[in-house]
Design goal:
Helix content: over 70%
Organism: Methanosarcina siciliae T4/M
Distance between the termini: 76 Å
Protein name: ArnR1-like winged helix-turn-helix domain-containing protein
CATH architecture of the largest domain: Orthogonal Bundle
CATH superfamily of the largest domain: Winged helix-like DNA-binding domain superfamily/Winged helix DNA-binding domain
Shape: elongated
Oligomer: single chain
CATH class of the largest domain: Mainly Alpha
């Protein structure tokens, strides 16, 4: 019986160690390094800057913001494409929705707006 208990204790120790390693890995994934965060920002900016419809939406919103209905009308996009591009811009933190108006975020949205003017 003593041998059985020591074997089961060894397996429990191994399982606990694996769980601790897994938790450490998961927690490390939640907090990207500074380099990874910068790379993610650059990829996101590329997604926005390379698409003319997204650049157009950002320019229309401008620095003062715009009502949701007005942006949809001025964009000239169909419902599907408008929702697709707006979902991406909101998810990536380029635009924010405040009280029925879209505004540029600071600094991402403003940076994209300024770079979009030069493209």
């Amino acid at each position: 019986m003593m041998i059985k208990n020591s074997i089961s204790e060894k397996y429990m120790d191994i399982d606990m160690q694996k769980e601790d390693e897994l938790e450490a890995y998961i927690n490390s994934e939640k907090e990207p390094s500074e380099a990874e965060a910068i790379k993610k920002d650059h990829v996101m900016m590329g997604k926005v800057a390379l698409n003319s419809e997204r650049r157009k939406l950002v320019r229309i919103v401008g620095f003062s913001g715009i009502k949701k209905e007005e942006l949809k009308e001025k964009s000239g996009l169909n419902d599907f494409m408008y929702k697709y591009h707006m979902d991406l811009l909101l998810k990536e933190g380029i635009l924010k929705d405040e009280g029925g108006k879209y505004h540029l975020t600071d600094p991402q949205g403003i940076t994209v707006h300024e770079s979009g003017l030069r493209i």
